Every structure is written in C-alpha cells, then in structure tokens.
Amino acid sequence: MDQRTITIINGGTFRGNISIFQKQPDLEAIGAMSLAWLTKGTNPGTKLEFNWVEDYWFIWSEKNVLEPEVVFSASQTIPANLRTNNKITLEKNKYGYFFTNQVTDTMHTGQLIIEEDNSIPGNEASIGIGMSGIGTLVWSSEPNVDLNIQPKPQYWVCYGTFNQGEILNTQQLVDRAIQIEFPTNKYNAIVTLSSNNTWENIIYN
Q1: Does the pTM of the predicted model rise above 0.90?
Q2: CA distance 10 to 159
Q3: Beta partners for residue 8, in sequence order
C-alpha cells in the first residue's frame, strides 16, 4: 500500500491542534459522523507531518452518545480489507460487546460490512471504520442492521482545540478547513497556514 503524507507549515499566529479528518457525503446521509482522526499540536513558525497508508479497520465502542465534542475511544479494532475479510458481526453477551465471524463477502467486494445481530441494543454503543488503526467515521448501533460502507474518503485538514477521536461538527469547520485532493499518482501534499490564519494553495508531489 502506498503511504500518503501531508506536511503542514504553520506560518500564522495559531497555537493549538491541527487535525486531519475524513468526510464522505453519501455516508453522512446514513448517519456517519466524522472523528478528529490524526491530530498534532502546533505553534507559529513550526512544521508538522502526518503519514498513513490507506488500510481499513472495523471499530466499535461502548460510547453511546455521538455528538460534537464527545471523544470516541475504540474498545476493539480489527483489520479489514475491501476484497478479503470485509464483513464482520457485532454481538453482545453478558460480558459485553465483541466482533466475531469475520469473513470474505465476494458479493460485496469494495465494501466493508458490519452486521449487528439481534443481541445489540439500539443506541447503546457505536460502530464504524478506521484507517491506520484509528477511527475515522462512526455510527450509533442498531439491532438487526447491516451497515454497508463503500469507502471513498475525502481528506480535510483543519485547526482548532479538539482532541484525537473527538466527534466533529464538520459544518462548523468550513472556515478553518481545507480539502486535500491527491491527484493520481501523487501521495505527498504540503499546505501552509498563512499569516492571517487562512490556508494557502496546496503543493502536491
């Protein structure tokens, strides 16, 4: 898998956190919420770098409140693949929730599927997917529901005072965020926060 890199140059006056988050409008339409995925602190005049590979993970948490500023912390992460091991089941017994029965669903190649069986109470847990072992998009749990996810991630960089894993209100970040759209066969991006704390043009290489 190809490694992607985003380098941030803080040429502004901002002190706080820079985060990369993922958006996907078709998944937001079925309840997906974005997390502050990769997050690092920054001071004026500094540079920081984010690196990752586009791998996928199944995740769940007993966190049952999914709203902005709540921090999601995964209770279990299981590596997944869009072609193999792309389907898994979430169950609950007297000891708690757990993933089980990970299989390859050849009828749904290119998708990640989480089956929530009839043991799952509604809105008492949360499920989702991650990348590089860290959560990116999450949903509230529902019994007897198959969550079919076809990842087409959009990468966004933003600045603020959030923590890694925090649920974001992405609509409120419009003025502080910029989308990183990697061109074909380009895996590195450099973006600068200008002196007035706005994002400048992105350089891809």
Answers
A1: yes
A2: 10
A3: 48, 191
